[in-house]
Amino acid sequence: MVLTISLWASADGAVTFEQRSKAPTYANPDSHGYRFCASWVLADGTPIYSGCDPFSVQRCGQELKFDYKCCSGFEHSHQSLGGASSNPCAKLIPQFDDCPSVVEALGYKTFASYLRQMTELTRKNGSPFTIFVPMPADGEELKQIYGGSSREVGYHVVKGRIYAEQLRNGVKLESIYNNEEIEISRNSYGSVNVECIDLSQADIECQSGLIHIIRRPLVPRKGLKGWDKSSVMSLLRTNTETRDFGDDLPEQMKRDLADVNSGTKYTVTAPTSRSWSSAKSGKSRAQIEKMAASHVTKGLKCSSRIIKDAQTFTDLMGEGFQVKCETENRNEVRSIIDACGDSHRFVAKQSDMMAANGVVHMLDSPIIPSSALTLKDFMSKPECAKYQNIDKFVDDLKKCDLYMEDGEKYALIAPENEAFTWWKNYPQFRKEYELYQTDAEYRCRVARYHIVKNDGNLFDIPRFSGHTDGHRSNNKKNYLYETTYITKDNMGSKLYYHYSPVNNMKAVPLEDTSIYRTGRINVIPEMNITDVVGGRTDLSHSNNIMKISDMNNKYFKKDAPKNLFLVPTNDGWIDKRSKELGKNLISPELARYEMSAETAEMFAKLHHIPLYLWGGDIGYFPKNSVHKFMSSADVELIFWNDDKGVMRIGYDGLDKSEWPKVVQFNQHARDGMVWTLDGFLKCPEHLCPFQLEDTDIYTFFTAACLTTDLPGEVDVKNQFAKTPTDIAKRHPDQCIVIKQGEVKTTKDLFEEGGQPEHDH
Questions:
Q1: Euclidean distance between the first and final Cα of the chain, in Å?
Q2: Could you point out which of 130, 134, 353, 640 has its C-alpha 20 to 30 Å from the C-alpha of 523?
C-alpha cells in the first residue's frame, strides 16, 4: 500500500494533512476464462494461496506476479463445449479416486506411498480427512525427516473436510498422529500458514477427503528426533543445535518461554551451536545472558510474515533491530541486521520450527546487541559508527578527552555525517564551523557539548519527563538542553536537544551510553540574549528599550534557554509613512517607549515568548502553516509561515498589513533565541496607552474697566489693547475679567517632521 500525503491550508490558515491510500492492483482471473483462479507466484516459481483474489504485494524486494490456473477440481481440456469459444478448464477432475491416488496423480508419489500405509485413508465410505501434502514433489526432504515411518507422517492428516476458507487465524486442528495440534495463522496480506508453513494450493477434492499443498513438511510436537515442541523452551532444550543457547537465557525468560498457558507467543532466533559457543567465549555470565536475551521477541513471526525490505522488531529487553528480506538467485533470504550493520542470516530449512507458544528460527551467527558494547567498544569498531551514519563525528570523539567517568551512564547526541554539511552552509554558524576545522581545543569542546550524564531518564524517549532545566554537558560549565514538544510536520512528537532534532525515536543503547542521532550540530552558545542584542549595531534601538525595561533581570533566565525574543532591527523602526516620502524618520512610538519604563516593559513583554522555542523546528515551520504562542504580555501571538516560506507574526485585531516579517532566525544564546524582525509589533492600547498627536487648548477672555484713570498705569488705552487681562487683574475694584470660551487644536507629530535618527 502506498500512502500519499497532501498538505493544504484552510481559510483560517490552519494546515491539514490528508492521507489517501493508493488502490492496490488485483488479479483478474475472469479475463483468462471460466473456472480460472489466481494465486501469487514466488521468485522460485512456487504458487502461494490467497484467501481471495490476490492483490499486488511487495515481498522480499520483488512484486509478486499473479498465476492463473484452473480452479480446484478442474483441469485443462481442449474439448469444445459448443458455441463460439471453448473453455480450457472444462474438464472436471474425477473425485471418486481415493486420496492417496489423487495425491500420486498430482505428482507426489513418495508422500502417496506413506498415505497408502494408513488404512483409514483407503477405506470406501470411510470418514473424510484433510491432508496437507508437503512440497517438493520428489519427497526427498520428507524422507530425511521421517525415514520410512508412516505413523509420524500422520501429523499431516486431520479428520474432516476443512476447506481453505475455514483455515482462519488461531484455528487449531487435531492430527491423526496422537491427536497433536496443528495451528493455523493468516498473514495480513491474505496468505495462510499451517504451522508457519505457507499454503500453496487448496481445496483439491478426493473420494475420502480434501487435499491442500504446503511448501514444506510438518514436524509433530513430540516423538520425532527426540524433539519436544510442547513449548518454545522445551524445543530449544531438546534440539541439540539450540540446547546450549537455551541454557544461557536468563532464568525468568526461560520460565516465560515454557509457560504455554500465558497466552503470549514468542519468536526466537537461535544461533547455530558452533557460532554461539564461539561468540560467548570469554564473556561473563551477565554478558552471555544479555546476548542470548536479544534473540527473543514477543509475538508469532513466521518467516512468511517477514516480507518487507526492512522492518524493525524489538526484543524482550527493549532493544530494536532491523530485519531484512531480499531475493537472491530466486530464493528469499531473511537476515537480522545488528547495530553495527553485521548481517545474521536465517538458515534455510531450519526456520519456522513451530512450538505450542511460538516459533524458532535458526541463525547462521549470533546477534551481538549494542547494549553489550561500551562506547569505547563502539568507537573501536569503525563499521558501527559508519552503519549508524555518525562516523565523522565519532572520528573526532576519538581524538578528545571526553571526561567520561567509569561506572557512569551517559547520553551522546551524535550528529550524522550530513550535519556537517548543514553546519558549513548555515551562515549564522559559519565562523564556528571554520573554528572547528582549525582549532583542536574548540573541536573537543563541541564534542563534549554533545555528551551529558544519564540521570535515569535519558535511556529512551518514552522515559523523558518533558521539559527540563537542562543537563550539564561534559564541558562542566555548559548545559545541553533537552525538550519534547509536538513538531510541525506529519511525524508527530519529536525530541530536541538544544535545537537538534533526534531523527530516530529510539536511542542506540550501549552498555554505558545511549546514542541519539541528529541532523544538526549543537554549536555552543557563548553569549546571553542581552549580549547578542547589545553586540549588534543594527539592533541599537531595541537594545535601548530592552535596557530600560530591565528584561535581562526580570524575564531572561541566564544559562536556561527558556526565551524567544523578537527584536525589531533599526530599519524596522523607520516610520512607514516616512519611507513612502523617501525619508528615514524614526517612528514616534520609539520615543514614547523610551520615555516610560513601564510602557517599555509592556512593549518588550509583547515581543517575548517564555517557552522552549530556541531553535529546533521553531524557525523551520513548514510552508503554509499557522501556530500560536502566548507572549509574556498575555497576548497570543500568531506565527504564520506563508506559501513562499515567509514568516510573519501578529495577533488577532492587528491588521495583517502591520504584521512584521522575520528576517533572521535563531541567533542562539545561552538563555534562548533571538529572531530579528523587519518591523515592530504595535502594542495594543490596553497595554500601552499611546498618542501620536500634540494637543493644545486655547482659552478666550474679555476684560472691561470703569475708567481709564487707573493708579500706577501709563497710557492705559494702548496698554489695555495689548494685555487687557493683565491690567484688569491688577485693578479688581475697577475692572472685571470674563471667560468667553476656548479652542482645542491638535497637531500630527509626523506632519511636524517626525523624529530624527537616535544616537543608539
A1: 62
A2: 640
The residue among 464, 435, 449 whose CA lies nearest residue 402 is 449
Q: 401-409: list long-range contacts, CB under 8 Å, 24+ apart.
A: 401/444, 402/447, 402/448, 402/451, 402/474, 403/448, 403/451, 403/474, 403/475, 403/476, 404/375, 404/451, 404/474, 404/512, 408/453, 408/454, 408/512, 409/453, 409/454, 409/458, 409/512, 409/513, 409/514
User: Is a pLDDT exceeding 50 seen at residue 245?
Assistant: yes
Q: Would 138 be classed as within a structural domain? A: yes
Higher pLDDT, 21 or 173: 173
Query: Pick from 495, 518, 541: which residue ends a domain?
Result: 518
Query: What's the Rg (C-alpha) of the chain?
Result: 41
What is the pLDDT at residue 147? 86
For residue 243, give the CATH number of its domain. Answer: 2.30.180.10
Same domain, 386 and 514: yes
Examine the domain organization and report whether 218 and 348 are in the same domain.
no
Cell of 46: 512456487
The band of 384, judged by pLDDT with boundaries at 50, 70 and 90, is very high
Out of 11-15, 365-369, 501-505, the most confident range is 365-369
CA 329: distance to chain centroid? 35
What is the C-alpha separation between 531 and 602, in angstroms, rounded? 21
Mean pLDDT for the stretch of residues 543-554? 94
408 and 316 in a common domain: no
- Residue indicated by cell numbers 522575520: 662
pLDDT value at residue 672: 85
Note whether residue 229 is domain-resident.
no
* Residue 460 scores a pLDDT above 70: no
Instruction: Read off the pLDDT band of 13 (50, 70, 90).
Output: very low
Count: domains in the chain: 6
Q: Are residues 99 and 188 in the same domain?
A: yes
Tell me the backbone φ, ψ of residue 322, rounded to 5 degrees: -100, 140
- Judge if 360 and 377 occupy the same domain: no
Q: Are residues 69 and 171 in the same domain?
A: no
- Report DSSP letters for 665-697, one per residue: EEEEETTEEEEEESS-PPPPTTTS----EEEEE
Q: What is the pLDDT of residue 638?
A: 96
Q: 211: domain range?
A: 94-222
Cα angle 268-359-245, degrees, rounded to a multiple of 5 = 35
357/543 Cα distance (integer angstroms) = 70
pTM of the predicted model as reported, rounded to 2 decimal places? 0.75
Percent of the residues in the chain that have a pLDDT greater than 90, as a whole number:
53
- Of residues 649 and 125, more confidence is placed in 649
Choose between 691 and 669: higher pLDDT.
669
**Residue 532 has what pLDDT?**
94
Burial of 435 (0-12, 13-18, 19+ CB in 10 A): middle
Longest Cα separation, the chain: 157
**Could you count the other beta carbons within 10 Å of the beta carbon of residue 324?**
18
Contacts 24+ apart (CB under 8 A), 108-113: 108/133, 108/137, 108/139, 109/137, 109/139, 110/138, 110/139, 110/140, 110/142, 110/143, 111/139, 111/142, 111/153, 111/156
Task: Let me know whether 126 and 245 are in one domain.
Answer: no
Q: Is residue 82, in this structure, part of any structural domain at all?
A: no
**Stretch 281-297: mean pLDDT, rounded?**
93
Supply the pLDDT for residue 22. Answer: 64
Q: Which domain-ending residue is among 346, 367, 388?
A: 367
The DSSP-derived string for 353-381 is EEETTEEEEEESS----GGGS-HHHHHH-
Residue 634 forms part of a structural domain: yes
C-alpha to C-alpha distance for 180 and 175, rounded to whole angstroms: 5
Question: Domain check: are 45 and 29 in the same one?
Answer: yes
Listed residue (224, 49, 105, 226) closest to 154, CA to CA? 224
